[in-house]
Amino acid sequence: MRAMYYEAFGAAPEIRTLPDPTPTNAGVVISVKATGLCRSDWHGWMGHDPDIKLPHVPGHELAGTISAVGRDVRRFKVGDRVTVPFVSGCGHCMECRSGNSQVCEEQFQPGFTHWGSFAEYVAIDYADQNLVHLPEEISYETAASLGCRFATSFRAVVDQGRLKGSEWLAVHGCGGVGLSAIMIGAALGANVVAIDIAEDKLALARALGATATIDSRAVADVSEAVREVTGGGAHVSVDALGHPQTCCNSILNLRRRGRHVQVGLMLADHATPAIPMARVIAHELEIYGSHGMQSWRYDAMLRMILSGKLSPERLIGRRITLSEAAPALATMDSFRENGISIIDRMI
Ligand SMILES: [Zn+2]
Ligand SMILES: [Zn+2]
Question: What is the pTM of this model?
Answer without folding.
Answer: 0.93
